[in-house]
Specification:
Elements: E1 9-11, E2 23-27, E3 30-34, E4 43-49, E5 56-62, E6 81-88, E7 91-98, E8 102-108, E9 119-123, E10 127-134, E11 141-147, H1 149-152, E12 157-163, E13 175-179, E14 193-197, E15 200-207, E16 214-220, E17 228-233, E18 244-250, E19 256-263, E20 269-278, E21 285-287, E22 296-298, E23 326-327, E24 336-337, E25 344-347, E26 349-350, E27 363-367, E28 373-382, E29 389-395, E30 399-406, E31 412-419, E32 427-428, E33 433-434, E34 439-446, E35 451-457, E36 463-470, E37 480-487, E38 496-505
């Protein structure tokens, strides 16, 4: 049980890592959540909970990003934006917007699949944050979406469509149903989630930007409007900046809850759980503590569950990596080799981009934890190729990595390199040192504010390397931990590297 939690209370955030733009549903006694995955593969993570506090990662809905060729290289801020998860007609449905292509959907009979291949429901630039609604009263289906100004020149408005009940196509050209420019003080209206409740159409949508914004609620008796609006969650005097964008869920006993994100720099968008009720007089939703985010609160009235969180540690049994890992682009055969023992065997992939990990597709990544911790992994370089290298990275617009490299003299060196956000190639962050056994234990001590310190052990105990540095987020994504193996361009197989005993634990000091 994490600090601040008791048997009767929970502490926010309930998901303390970058589970961006969450949406949530209940099916029976089970709760499911998905989140943005941008350019990482597999995409559309699927999380499960029985109590809305303890969550586990049970799979992904998207095996590969399409078109295949466009996502053969990293596109860190593209791909899957702000999905919506729904359950209708005994199937799970996920709709999302790719800002460069349009609105897609996949569906499946069970949360673990099999999921259909992506279907392009509406093509267009800048179509983002779609959410469907099947109106059980009338049999009609609808869809609402927002706009990305970077692709379309348009923002701060929500467009509504009638949708075919099969979820395969839209039945009209769409109409602006909420224009944020007409609401004094509102800007960057996006991320809509569409519901029916108490005879109203409801759109829960954030505005004001991810760092400083608020959560709005809109309601109308007719889907196409007119809508009236109200701010229902904002920072007030709390330390939860920009509390917004998420989903409403009702438990079987009738309790209402709202899951949303908070932007936390290098940690990305962490997920909070807010109590929710409906105001008896005005009929509007009331989120948190009278519209302010809660830090600690009574747990949902649901059966007690054992503490759980998405997995981080990995022994890589049989050479397979756990669900928590995602590639930086669509993977290719041969990047990782399965075998009979434990350990991740990564091929030293030949690359013309080996000098810049931000451009390398064969980086295996997972989310940076949102609390101070120590990350460790053991590495053995199984390559005789001069220039072959492998290591552990902290990735973002700027990055650092520590690991092993085979020198031109045939020796293996412990190296530590970095690249600033404006740099197009990396430099040494510390002097290379011999690693005579061709193996090392690598560590990152991550403190408050995502301040990191690398250290290494080549046989005589851990020693610090280089300066303390602050992890750097990407444009829309928190910093990532990464494992990578590379070699210079050339002919033939360049060998491999083996990673074992990857673990994230309590801070090593204090």
């Amino acid at each position: 049980m994490t600090a601040g939690q008791t048997e009767s209370t929970y502490r926010n955030p309930v998901l303390n890592a970058d589970w961006s733009d969450p949406d949530v549903i209940r099916v029976g006694d089970d709760f499911y959540l998905t989140a943005s995955s941008f350019g990482r593969v597999p995409g559309l993570p699927l999380l499960h909970s029985r109590d809305l506090v303890n969550w586990t990662l049970v799979g992904h809905a998207l095996d590969r990003l399409e078109p295949e060729a466009e996502f053969a290289v990293p596109r860190h801020d593209c791909g899957v934006w702000a999905p919506s998860l729904r359950h209708h007609d005994d199937r799970f449905w996920i709709f999302w917007g790719d800002p460069d292509q349009g609105i897609f959907q996949v569906n499946a009979p069970e949360i673990r699949g099999p999921w259909t291949r992506p279907l392009l429901v509406k093509a267009g630039k800048g179509l983002i944050d779609p959410c469907p609604l099947w109106d059980e009263e009338t049999g009609e289906a609808y869809l609402v979406h927002a706009w990305a100004k970077s692709r379309s020149g348009v923002k701060n408005r929500l467009t509504g469509h009638r949708m075919h009940p099969h979820g395969t196509e839209l039945l009209d050209e769409g109409k602006v149903i909420v224009d944020g420019d007409r609401i004094p003080g509102w800007f960057t209206l996006e991320g809509p989630k569409l519901y029916r409740h108490d005879g109203w159409f409801w759109i829960l949508a954030p505005a004001g930007g991810v760092e400083t914004g608020w959560q709005g609620a809109f309601r109308s008796r007719a889907f196409f409007g007119p809508y009236e609006e109200k701010v229902v969650l904002e920072q007030k005097d709390t330390d939860v900046n920009g509390p917004h964008q998420g989903g409403w869920v009702r438990t079987r006993s009738g309790e209402d809850w709202f899951l949303h994100f908070q932007q936390r720099g290098a940690y990305g968008r962490v997920v909070h759980l807010q109590p929710m009720r409906w105001d008896g007089e005005g009929g509007w939703p009331v989120l948190g503590d009278d519209g302010a985010p809660v830090a600690v609160h009574r747990r949902p009235d649901l059966p007690a569950q054992p503490p759980a969180a998405p997995a981080t540690d990995d022994d890589f049994p049989g050479g397979r990596h756990g669900r928590q890992w995602q590639w930086a682009a669509n993977p290719r055969d041969g990047w990782a080799t399965q075998h009979s023992a434990d350990g991740l065997r990564l091929t030293c992939v030949r690359s013309a981009e080996a000098h810049d990990l931000r451009k390398v597709p064969n980086v295996l990544t997972q989310r940076l934890p949102g609390t101070p911790c120590t990350v460790e992994v053991e590495l053995r370089l199984d390559s005789e190729e001069p220039g072959a290298r492998a290591g552990l990275a902290v990735l973002g617009d700027a990055y650092r990595w520590i690991g092993l490299q085979r020198g031109a003299d045939g020796a293996v060196h412990l190296v530590h390199r970095f690249a600033e956000a404006v740099a197009d190639r990396e430099r040494d962050a510390d002097h290379p040192r011999l690693a005579p056994e061709g193996r090392a234990r690598l560590r990152i001590d991550i403190g408050a504010g995502a301040r990191c310190r690398f250290s290494y052990d080549t046989g005589d105990g851990f020693r610090p390397s280089g300066q303390v540095f602050a992890a750097t987020p990407w444009r829309w994504v928190g910093a990532l931990l990464g494992l990578v193996a590379l070699a210079p361009t050339g002919q033939g197989h360049a060998g491999a590297a083996t990673f074992t005993r990857f673990g994230i634990g309590a801070p090593a000091h204090g």
